[in-house]
Amino acid sequence: MHPLHLLLAGRRPVVWGALLAVCLLLGVDFCHGQTPAAQTTPESPPAASVSSPPPGLGTQQRSLLEVIRSGGVLMVPILGCSVLMLVFVLERLVSLRRGNVIPRPFVKRFLLQLEQGQLTPEEALELCRQNRSPVAELFAAAVRKWGRPSVEVEQALIDAGERVTNHLRKYLRVLNAVATVCPLLGLLGTVMGMIEAFQSIATNMALGRPELLAEGISKALVTTAAGLSVAIPALIAYLYFVSRVDRLVMEMDALGQEVVELVAAEAQRDTARTAPKRKNKAA
Predict the structure, then answer these.
(1) Separation in Å, CA 226 to CA 187, 211, 217, 218
(2) pLDDT tens track of the chain, all 283 residues?
(3) How far is residue 178 from each of residues 105, 184, 232, measured CA to CA in Å?
(4) Single pTM value for the model
(5) What residues have CB less than 8 Å from 18, skipping those under 6 apart?
(6) Comparing C-alpha atoms, which of 28, 3, 29, 27 is closest to residue 16?
(7) What is the 3 state secondary structure string of the chain?
(8) Which of 174, 103, 93 is nearest to 135 (CA)?
């Protein structure tokens, strides 16, 4: 099995996700911090003929860490939100896999055994407890009402479905909160940066010194870009996981209805009526 698959399939995806997020940030900063060495070619003009850039206008590309520092103190919560988003996206990707929510081998075997009458209520409940998947929890709620009218079984299925749905939607509010808060943090950084720039103009500190004015504007633009860069993926992930949960819930509801038709009192009476006929035909 691939090492990354083993990593994501662990019992603590939140911890592994945090470590992966830190590694990614450090790796991106290292890559951006590398600047290629200047190379001279025969066609390039001599060094003496190249005009030196004016003071204050550097030509080297800033590293990611320098860009983050230029954004000011509000870059800290924005970075925290980015790590939080990455952690819970990885956790939901693992938890909402179809094989974890609706294991097909268990579902097929369970429904087939119920149709053929090979399970007692105790055996069916024990199979659901051993599987421990969300769909098994749904089946267990219906099995506990074995032999009751279909209305009672369906009500038990609905109650269990609400609990399972809330469990599947776990941590999705965190992604929604990140997508809502990060643009506001970026907007706040924009306002603070513009206030700083205008204060420099008001106190005559920026007159003749454009680098002081550019510093405040840079802080405003960096925080806005950082907030949107985190909020947009968080919103996309939130919408994706919501739709995925809805599809899984609809599929589990259809499977639960099949269990209701097999364990309700009406189904048990029909089975009891057809059993003697099958014995007579066999005889």
Answers:
(1) 10, 22, 14, 12
(2) 444 444 444 444 444 455 444 444 444 443 444 434 434 444 444 443 344 444 444 434 567 677 677 777 888 999 999 999 999 999 999 999 999 999 999 999 999 998 888 888 899 999 999 998 999 999 999 999 888 888 888 999 999 999 999 999 989 999 999 999 999 999 998 888 888 777 777 776 656 666 666 666 777 788 899 999 999 999 999 999 999 999 999 999 999 999 998 888 776 665 555 544 444 444 4
(3) 37, 10, 9
(4) 0.70
(5) 83, 87
(6) 3
(7) CCHHHHHHCCCCHHHHHHHHHHHHHHHHHHHHHCCCCCCCCCCCCCCCCCCCCCCCCCCCCCCHHHHHHHCCCCHHHHHHHHHHHHHHHHHHHHHCCHHHHCCHHHHHHHHHHHHCCCCCHHHHHHHHHHHCCHHHHHHHHHHCCCCCCHHHHHHHHHHHHHHHHHHHCCCHHHHHHHHHHHHHHHHHHHHHHHHHHHHHHHCCCCCCCHHHHHHHHHHHHHHHHHHHHHHHHHHHHHHHHHHHHHHHHHHHHHHHHHHHHHHCHHHHHHHHHHHHHHHHHHC
(8) 103
Domain ranges, ordered by start, for the chain: 99-169+251-275
Measured in whole angstroms, the distance separating CA 244 from the mean position of its chain's CA atoms is 11
Report yes or no: 121 and 44 within 8 Å, Cβ to Cβ: no
